[in-house]
Protein: Major facilitator superfamily (MFS) profile domain-containing protein
Organism: Nezara viridula
Amino acid sequence: MDTSLLNSDLKAVEILVSNRRKSVGWTWLVVLAGVATTIGSSIPIGFSIGVLNTPSGLLQKWINESVIEKYDMVLNNHQMDIVWSSIVSIFLVGGMVGSLSGAWFADRFGRKGTLMIGAVASFITSLMFVFTKPLNSVELFFLARLVAGLSGGLVMPVIPLYLTELAPINLRGAMGTVCPMGISSGVLLAQILGLPNFLGTEVIWPYLLGFFGVLVVVGSAAFPWLPESPKYLYVIKGSRQRALRELSRLRNLPEEFVCCELEEKVDSVEDDVWTLGRIMRTRGLWINLALVCALHFGQQFSGINAVFYYSVTIFRSAGLSEKNAQLGNLAAGVINLSMAFIMIPSINLFSRRFVTITSCTLATAFLVFLSFSIRFMHTFTWMPYLSVVGVLGYVLTYGFGLGPIPYFIGTELFDVGPRPIAMALGTASNWLGNLTVGFFFPVVQSAIGPYSFLIFATSTALLTIFVKVCLVETNVMMLAKRQRSGSLSKA
């Protein structure tokens, strides 16, 4: 971690503690920013990630009928698999490309401006989905998935960047967990609405795919009242007065009371423009950049999507009916979402390093456990129940560390200048990990079955070692507390 950044953050904590400013916390504008970005940006990303799972049979049937009508040909199983995997994966490819452009947009149009651009693109995409069936166009469906990925990838690194730059130092960790919480909410919402009892029917599935447009409109309605990031205005744009005005609104304090907080970042102001080439030439940033990318890639390569893919089969083998097995899968999603909610108020109570290492270690253990419990599921009558424990235990341990930490750790490892590029590369790694698992897991799973989870276990084990060796503590609230305790002990 950059020493000057750490010292600046520790100084900010000391000022916060010494002044005891009761109003430096969850002001209405900070809360509004969190709620608006969650509803209008994060949840739509998660919704698009999970929306194709439940109604996949209906959609593949429509694709085949559309191809027959327009091209007078019938897709065999192999051809359908190619078309369907292309539709699924093009969203991930778009997400990766969009993430790589996020840094440029964040510095060119601002954090808030980028979120607004993403919202417009996302709403247009929702309309494309709605008109897919009336126009009987598989091509429009494919294009909509691509644009949804591009818009989601664009805003995914910017959401935690924006929220952590708005938050006071004591709420930075909590605001950093809002983005993964929104994504988990979106995935779960898509699973629920995709059921036949709701929107997952042969008649109205286009409205299921485009439902996130409603969320975009609701969340974006608050954007005119949201401030731009004061750190962006001050450090990137050099506009001190506007930054001071926005910070005053955020903290609900007169400008003379917040000028000290703004000036704490005076050493971070840089005239030079940060580029990817400059970051790659700066040796001091290599480890931090590798950590951000490894945590994002490792989050997806921990096998979270594969576990959810297997969960219905596991619950069914444990004696549950098809309907109850689907409800069990939803229960796993609820656990994942519940952990995201729990981490918002509790993230600052724990060491980032300890939480990450613990989550990766336990995930490794549960993945090994899950691999062998699935392998011997039909050997012992009680083994399916252990498989259920493995699924729920893995989802729980993923939820408190591997889930939230990668999304905001870059905001604590990097200063304002190189931060957008680091966040963009991190989220691009996240999309790449998701794409890699999506492409290769079905092949590997068909070849070695449940032993495929040992590959994910190896990945999380290696990530544990890397984090243990290279990640320094970034929770400045805990560091400041230790510093004060050490000072009192010496006294």
Notes: The chain is about 75% helix and 0% strand. The two ends are 29 Å apart (CA to CA). Residues 18-23 have pLDDT under 50 and may be disordered.
